[in-house]
Amino acid sequence: MEGIKKFINDYLVRLSIPKINFTDIIEILILAYLIYHVVRWIKNTRAWSLVKGLVVIMAFWLLAVILQLNVLLWIITNTISVGIIAIVIIFQPEFRKALEQLGQKNLVRSFITFDDSKNLSEKFSDHTLNEIVRATFELARAKTGALIVIEQDTPLAEYESTGISIDSLTSSELLINIFEHNTPLHDGAVIIRGNRIVAATCYLPLSDNMQLSKDLGTRHRAGIGISEVSDSLTIIVSEETGKVSIAKGGKLIRNVDGDYLRSKLIDAQKKTVEVKKLKLWRGKNKE
């Protein structure tokens, strides 16, 4: 009891409500927004279990301060620096993913453009759109698994290099043949850039989102994974059910029909046109 009284006298009595001005309110709102999104991101990664462990340690630290447990205080104080380095090393993939997602936010890209002319992709045509839709539902009817990634603003050269280069005009016949069983190219993902299939059998990062349904296989997790680290539109055909799903922005939309898929492809097509117009406008302003 003496320790608790001492803690109250030394710390809690000194607390007072400071004067709050307009800039303080802005700072509070910004911090609340950042903390909300950080906690939301952490809940979908392995770091959530780490946070719960840190809460337990903080509770022990508070108890040690109140009860004057000097040995515990010494251990916690001398292991904080080592613990921070260990956290950075262990959760490096999660931190990298968070930075990638931050770079994809329109808030950042509206002020800073990291793209160069080499990375600008050609808008895919209506013919390519129709060929993708036709191939997708032909594969679905035959219950042939497929994974088709349509590149948008974020370059996918890193994942393209893991597959076999094709560089061919997109056609439904070629897509169906690529994913046909017992063919050399059927395993992995196809990447489409503009009107061309650039590579097949590409390896994609698997999503580690623990909130995903347990009945989702590797193909769906890979489709979601690539959508988490890029702005691509990914089409997944289930080999077991023949159902078509779409992955976009880390979210999976399941059991879509042809009209819905076509509408999403049209949205991606329009977005590409708007981005190119914006870049041309910026270029004229610089001149």
UniProtKB/TrEMBL annotation:
BP terms from Gene Ontology? cAMP biosynthetic process
Where does the record locate the signal sequence feature?
none
Listed InterPro entries? C-di-AMP_synthase, CdaA, CdaA_N, DisA, DNA_integrity_DisA_N_sf, DNA_integrity_scan_DisA_N
Catalytic activity of the protein: 2 ATP = 3',3'-c-di-AMP + 2 diphosphate
Q: Write out the entry's keywords from A to Z.
A: ATP-binding, Cell membrane, Membrane, Nucleotide-binding, Nucleotidyltransferase, Transferase, Transmembrane, Transmembrane helix
Q: Does the keyword Membrane apply?
A: yes
GO molecular-function term, one example from the UniProt record: diadenylate cyclase activity
Give the DAC domain ranges: 92-258
The UniProt transmembrane annotation reads 20-38, 50-67, 73-91
Q: What is its EC number?
A: 2.7.7.85
Is Transmembrane helix a UniProt keyword of this protein? yes
Q: What class of enzyme is it?
A: transferase
Pfam families per record = CdaA_N, DAC
User: How does this polypeptide assemble, per the annotation?
Assistant: Probably a homodimer.
User: What is the annotated role of this protein in its UniProt record?
Assistant: Catalyzes the condensation of 2 ATP molecules into cyclic di-AMP (c-di-AMP), a second messenger used to regulate differing processes in different bacteria.
Family per UniProt? Belongs to the adenylate cyclase family. DacA/CdaA subfamily.
Q: What is this protein called?
A: Diadenylate cyclase
Task: Look up and give the organism this protein is from.
Answer: Variimorphobacter saccharofermentans
Which gene produces this protein?
A: dacA
